[in-house]
């Protein structure tokens, strides 16, 4: 029956091994081939992350090679998400031309992605200099039916920004009004009102613009927004100048200086406004004086970054020269032209830098792809190594199971010997006065104690208790130490008795057990099992024995005691 169980166990282990080998091979193959469902899951995760962390979402997209996407839906999703991420992160969109195909794919299929991909496409066109077509596209998106207000609001915000960049007036008024009506957040509603103000100003409807501006000034004052209050009052002074209310504009500028101080951050523009008001009223000398102050403040406040101010200042200098002398100086025209060229060159440099950034991004994507290939090779190597490790582990388990079966067979044989010994009639032979001790010696010579120490299973421990209790009770221990000490004395010429007689008052019982087992050839690990201690504790007790008996550091304790015994 035991052999049958052993055979069945071997077959089960072999079957498990083959099953695991097949499963591991299948898993390894699956990990090396990326399915489209995996890409869909990764793109879906990137889309979720996009809402909270745009940079992380773009990093996830950069790890994907679009050439691996073989399905139209995945390609559209990838190019849409990448362009939309650049839009949200205010990054260069020079390399996002394929968002046009993504928008074409989503039209009529998915309202949300239709609108968002359309916004990304419009922003791409703005980046490439085609602002009119971008505005036209945003108008079409804003007029789509059955679109949630949250998406319409996003579209309108972009629409008014691009309209302001083109200085649109009347047509932007309608868009800005619609945006203001749809905004639910108070701060967003203020921003929409400011865009409506710009639209009225570009349309020449200055009364309407001033009415809105008065509301913004009052709102900023009530909220305690000092910077915004300052900005809105400056713009109010400019609007008054546009209406020809130069004296009121001067009074408002004087009040701003009174509240903000003469060295506020916009002092150069405020003196420039003074100069315009003076020029409008024909006071050339006053206009010249304030313009000189504005030029000095601009250089002091802004250093070399005063190109924007200089573009206005040079024009006003040319007008003042004409009013004073009746002629135009070429130097002022050249300065004005140079400032415009400088701004244009800066814009060109910015665009070139964006294009270089796009190329760097593409190079990085290629590098990531190569790195991904290297990682795949490494994963394959690790997978093969892991498979070999598993094979070795399973082989070790099989071998261990075989040893356990052999131990079980030995235990069965030893159990039979113990049972036969207990049921046999007692024999009293004067020539063998200690037959039970002899029987114990024989059993222990069969290796039972060492077997338990090598394989300390509970079954083996119980067997050792049974054998040890042949001559008496072990009180729950694994070994009957009195019987074992008697056997040691018989086998090793009274070694234990001599040890106990000489050092019994110095050594503890555990230390005597360690020495006796060491004499019998047991290893430290086996001693730890038989004495119910940890291996580290046995080492500590050995060190204690060395100190108590004066054993040199590199000398064996048992050899030392045997030599002292002979001496």
What would your notes on this structure say?
This protein is 78% helix and 0% strand. The protein contains 26 helices and no strands. Helix 9 packs antiparallel against helix 10. The two termini are 57 Å apart. Mean pLDDT is 78; it is low at 1-8 and 426-440.
Bulk shape: elongated
Mean pLDDT: 78
Please report the number of helical segments: 26
- Sheet-strand content, in percent, reads under 5%
**Helix/strand structural class:** mainly alpha
Largest sheet: none
List segments where confidence is low: pLDDT < 50 over at least 5 consecutive residues.
1-8, 426-440
| Helix residue percentage | over 70%
User: Count the strands?
Assistant: 0
Radius of gyration: 47 Å
N- and C-termini, Cα separation: 57 Å
Please render the helix and strand layout as text:
Layout: H1 2-32, H2 36-50, H3 54-62, H4 72-88, H5 99-106, H6 111-127, H7 131-142, H8 149-165, H9 170-182, H10 186-202, H11 206-223, H12 226-242, H13 246-260, H14 267-280, H15 284-302, H16 307-325, H17 330-423, H18 435-445, H19 448-454, H20 458-468, H21 481-491, H22 495-503, H23 509-519, H24 524-530, H25 535-549, H26 557-566
Helix pairs in contact: 1-17, 2-3, 2-4, 3-4, 4-5, 4-6, 5-6, 6-7, 6-8, 7-8, 8-9, 8-10, 9-10, 10-11, 11-12, 12-13, 12-14, 13-14, 14-15, 14-16, 15-16, 16-17, 19-24, 24-25
Task: Output the keywords.
567 residues, mainly alpha, 78% helix, 0% strand, elongated, disordered N terminus
Provide a concise account of the structure shown.
It contains 26 helices and no strands. The chain has helices spanning 2-32, 36-50, 54-62, 72-88, 99-106, 111-127, 131-142, 149-165, 170-182, 186-202, 206-223, 226-242, 246-260, 267-280, 284-302, 307-325, 330-423, 435-445, 448-454, 458-468, 481-491, 495-503, 509-519, 524-530, 535-549, 557-566.
